[in-house]
Amino acid sequence: MATDRFASAVFDEYLEKAAGHASAYLRTLPDRHVGARASREELLQALSVPLPLKGGEGGEVIDLLAAQVARGAVACNSPRYFGFVIGGAYPVALAADCLVSTWDQNAGIYAISPLVAVVEEVAAQWLLELFDLPRESGVGFVTGCQMANFTCLAAARHGVLRRVGWDVEADGLAGAPRINVIASAESHITIDVAMRYLGLGTRALQRVESDGQGRMRVDALREKIASLQGPTIICAQAGNVNTGACDPLREIGRIANDAGAWLHVDGAFGLWARASDAQRHLADGIELADSWATDAHKWLNVPYDSGVAMVRHAQDHRAAMTSAAAYLIQTQGAERDAVDWVPEFSRRARGVPVYATLRALGREGIADLVARSCARARQMAELLAREPGVRILNEVALNQVLVRFDDDDDTTREVIAGVQADGTCWLGGTNWQGQAAMRISVSNWATTEDDAERSVAAIARVFRSLRKRP
User: Fold this and answer.
1) Is the predicted pLDDT of residue 331 greater than 90, yes or no?
2) Torsion sign, CA atoms 37, 438, 306, 152
3) How many angstroms separate the CA atoms of 164 and 143, rounded?
4) What pTM was estimated for this model as a whole?
5) Taking a C-beta distance cutoff of 8 angstroms, is the pair 356, 96 a contact?
């Protein structure tokens, strides 16, 4: 019988083996070398063989993959990984994600998976409540902030052209009124990429100067928008990828409203400041926007991939995304079809780990998660600032720290490379206002005061060793 295949011991054997490897990996995270040690050639030697004519034993394949992790994978979920704004997988989120793979649900439409549709419906409302955004907003669960920005700006493109009588979904952009798109000089590259995907083009972006922390200058925005006519989209930012600074969103919101412009906010990690009383003021006025993009695999600490697109004008959101076909069974009632809110048909049930984490942590747990990350960033900045020759370049308002060594580009880059090789922690470099800098991003739920101290000690140790060279 067909059911014998599922009643056999094969699933149990493979799942138990995978679970054993997973548990062993997680147990090593607090103390393992954070960076990868194997070269591409070494990994290819272990993994690359001619495509087999006959398959091998599944358990051996799992063992082979697991054997390469310690040397070939960067421990991005380590409590001392500070390279990018990457959260670790919160335990309940990881467990829920395992269920998602086991259930193997296509989350595109309600008819395929009523369970996932309802879970994502609830998670969407919880997020709007957590961020205190308009409850009638449309919400879509996407891969990350790139697709969240794309989705929101697709809704914006539809909305501003609809207002002047143009149906961009039916008639395209050829012959359409030109859309003015304004963004800060410090906007994230995902805004540029979304412009390419949407057919608007990166040359259409009109840049507004930013201040010393990367915040959009309101006076420059007023001057810019006064010179424009026609449909306009303003792209603001909550959480500069280098400094963590948030644009003055309340003032920008008022300017957008007075000009009849659509305001979009890229809040990849900064939107989560709304969840913490201590940081909430940094995103003050964000509720005035028309759309918001964020990541859940950053500060909510759910597994990759998980982004969220939210649009105040649900009809504009739906019109920009939805598709219909004779063979699809789409709801006409209150049920939620995810395909109405995201660019994908077939998609992973990525809203399930979001639901699980929101329910397990609650408002207080999420607020604590955000506040602790910010506290660890301040701790690292304060400890590093005591070291002679070290300069902190930014106001540490959220979870980002920019560090420069001996006020020298080459020295700063050498320290970064040395710390990566040391393996106590992992962090990356950036270029900030023409200067090389170390960038520390604290986003992991498991990062402790001790992790921060150990990491600073390693950074200082590498820097001191470089200074001692003849």
Assistant:
1) no
2) negative
3) 32
4) 0.95
5) yes
Asked if 130 and 361 count as a contact pair (C-beta separation under 8 A), the reply is no
The continuous run of DSSP H or E covering 258 comes out as: helix 249-259
Tokens standing for 136? 């009638």
What pLDDT score was predicted for residue 1?
A: 46
Residue that is written with structure tokens 């982004």 in the block: 307
Is the CATH code 3.40.50.620 the one for domain 96-357? no
Local structure of 56: helix, strand or coil:
coil
Q: Using one digit for the tens of pLDDT, what is the confidence trace for 236-273?
A: 999 999 999 999 999 999 999 999 999 999 999 999 99
State the Cα angle at 74 between 69 and 77, rounded to 5°.
100
Give which of 437, 396, 378, 392 is closest to 244, Cα–Cα. 396
Domain map of the chain by residue range? 10-77, 96-357
Q: Which residues pair with 233 in a beta bridge?
A: 181, 262
Q: Which burial class, exposed, middle or buried, applies to 30 when counting CB atoms under 10 A from its CB (0-12, 13-18, 19+)?
A: middle
Examine the pLDDT at 209 and tell me if it is beyond 50: yes
**Residue carrying the six token digits 């380590």:** 78
